[in-house]
Design brief:
mainly alpha; 2 domains; about 70% helix; about 0% strand
Length: about 140
């Protein structure tokens, strides 16, 4: 079984929500969400400070940490499909992925973005450059 970049993204996507609900991350918030049956975990725009609301930043962070992982799963499935059918990812996708990861690294430097996703993005770019160089030499 060959490990593809898509499988790596799927792995990140599965681990993220699992870590999010654990007591080591946002377990307390998810216990509160469960009491409401995961319905209406925030007041939405009514929490927005511009509307004189008070934002619950812990719930906001818990939701987006969990949801980001869920978003990575279909992206990983798509990347895996592209890699297995065409055997190469578009360079534009790799650059966009790298930019999103760099923004995450800037915003939260001590995170999985820095220690897992940044090396993966750089690996994808190096892999693509090597693949392009081989195509130029052989064709």
């Amino acid at each position: 079984m060959k490990i593809t970049n898509g499988k790596i993204l799927i792995f990140f996507g599965i681990i993220h929500p699992l870590l999010g609900v654990s007591p080591f991350a946002f377990g307390k918030q998810f216990q509160g969400f469960a009491k409401q049956f995961f319905f209406k975990i925030s007041e939405g725009l009514f929490e927005f400070p511009l509307l004189n609301g008070t934002m619950n930043y812990e719930n906001f962070a818990a939701f987006w940490f969990f949801y980001f992982g869920l978003l990575l799963i279909p992206i990983g499935v798509l990347v895996h499909y592209v890699e297995t059918t065409t055997h190469q990812l578009p360079k534009n996708f790799i650059w966009a992925y790298l930019i999103v990861v760099l923004v995450g690294v800037f915003m939260i430097p001590f995170s999985g973005m820095t220690f897992l996703m940044l090396p993966h993005a750089i690996y994808m770019l190096v892999q693509k450059n090597k693949q392009t160089r081989q195509e130029v030499e052989s064709g």
